[in-house]
Design a protein that fits this description.
Layout lengths: L18 H6 L11 H10 L6 E6 L5 E6 L4 E6 L5 E6 L10 E6 L5 E6 L4 E8 L4 E4 L5 E2 L22 E6 L5 E6 L4 E5 L6 E6 L11 E4 L2 E6 L10 E7 L15 E6 L6 E6 L5 E6 L4 E6 L4 E7 L10 E6 L5 E6 L9 H4 L5 E8 L4 E9 L25
Antiparallel strand pairs: 1-2, 2-3, 3-4, 5-6, 6-7, 7-8, 7-9, 10-11, 11-12, 12-13, 14-15, 15-16, 16-17, 18-19, 19-20, 20-21, 22-23, 23-24, 24-25
Length: 399
């Protein structure tokens, strides 16, 4: 299957790989977060963790970080044994709320950047994985609802940045700068190595549209997206390429300016997850509203292909987040199923919850949706409640 960029994505080819059958029979390991992990959180914070939402692995592959979007907890697990190590509850912010949409470890392993979504706080957990020491640094926090930008503007301001709920922190390779996407549009670049953390670049809603949730770096540029899925911004798909240097509190707003790689405001459009193919040659971005991937050439920022997903493996997969296998041969996507717990149903609802398996072809320019590993969690009334959202890879070196 090979499509021109302006063509409507076609149905994927049927796979002849044995992965089709192997994935269908895969049995997922279950980690009971309602057991020892919940007891640890209750003992340390006085509250139970509610609704695990995202997962990340530190650079050394030793620890897993789980974000709880309903209760505002960050849980740290031993990645090898799955045993809970620490549990931290984030601060109370706007309107008495706290929610951890995504907590992500820095590449240099010195901190975890925390998007406290409805609290409208950007927080930092200082980390020492060798000693299992994790500390929520209250002095580092930025209150995105009440702060002022370096240009003296209110951080949250109608028609500029109307809703400063942080969605996804994206950390560049040196660990100094974090790109913080905002639910209502706009973006901040934050120097996370200062205490308190400092905003060093500010962008408005006209420059960066709402609901960004991806970030991948290629050399000296960082790809960031915006999408749909909220009542205030139902549809949208934008991909931006930002520089990773040139930030200064002395700059005017929207400086340095991003390059708009792609912009699509069509009905049902929703750019969401993304990943890079082997050698960072191509950027794949999922449109979960319309069941396809955009393929961007990272050398030229040109759209070179679209890969359709709806077909024989799944009539409505609804790709959410993406991750590439260590050898680059496959890309895996999380599939949320018929009853997702979060996000507007029109963009996140799919047919079967699980993990989709895409075989990468043509050196990363194309791919075949060849298998689906289902996950199930039926309730007492036989309704499917599984909701596979977060996805990451840990390279196991366990004996």
């Amino acid at each position: 299957m090979k499509l021109l960029p302006n063509d409507r994505p076609k149905k994927p080819e049927r796979s002849v790989s044995s992965n089709w059958r192997r994935a269908a029979k895969a049995v997922p390991e279950r980690i009971n977060l309602a057991g020892a992990a919940a007891r640890l959180c209750l003992a340390k914070t006085g509250a139970n963790p509610v609704r695990p939402h995202m997962i990340a692995i530190n650079a050394s592959q030793t620890h897993a970080i789980i974000s709880f979007v309903a209760s505002g907890h960050v849980l740290i697990l031993d990645a090898r044994t799955r045993a809970p190590i620490d549990c931290i509850r984030t601060s109370i912010g706007a309107g008495g709320a706290r929610q951890v949409h995504f907590a992500i470890p820095s590449p240099d392993e010195t901190y975890i950047a925390v998007a406290n979504q409805n609290g409208k706080l950007f927080e930092r957990i200082d980390t020492d994985y060798a000693t299992n020491t994790f500390t929520l640094n209250a002095a580092a926090m930025i209150n995105l609802a009440t702060c002022l930008t370096p240009n003296g503007l209110q951080c949250q301001l109608d028609d500029v940045r109307p809703d400063n709920a942080p969605i996804c922190p994206v950390i560049e390779a040196t660990s100094q700068y974090v790109f913080v996407t905002l639910r209502g549009g706009g973006l901040f670049v934050v120097d996370a190595q200062q205490t308190p953390m400092q905003i060093v670049a500010e962008y408005d809603i006209d420059t960066v549209h709402p609901n960004g949730c991806l970030g991948v770096q290629v050399g000296e540029k960082m790809y960031i997206d915006s999408g749909g899925g909220t009542a205030a911004h139902l549809f949208g798909a934008d991909i931006y390429a930002f520089p990773v240097t040139g930030f200064s509190p002395l700059n005017p707003p929207n400086t340095p300016a991003p390059t708009v790689v792609l912009s699509d405001a069509s009905a049902e459009a929703d750019a969401h997850g993304a990943t890079l193919t082997k050698h960072q040659r191509y950027l794949w971005v999922a449109d979960r509203g319309r069941n396809f991937f955009w393929v961007i050439d990272t050398a030229t920022d040109a759209l070179v292909n679209t890969i359709g997903l709806a077909g024989e493996v799944s009539a409505d997969p609804t790709p959410d987040l993406l991750v590439t296998s260590p050898n680059g041969s496959h890309i895996f996507m999380s599939l949320r199923g018929p009853n997702p717990l979060t996000a507007d149903p029109h963009v996140s609802t799919g047919s079967v919850p699980g993990v989709g398996v895409i075989k990468v072809t043509e050196g990363g320019r194309n791919g075949v949706f060849e298998a689906l590993a289902p996950v199930s969690n039926l309730d007492a009334t036989n309704v499917e409640r599984a909701d596979v959202h977060a996805i990451t890879i840990r390279v196991a070196q366990d004996k």
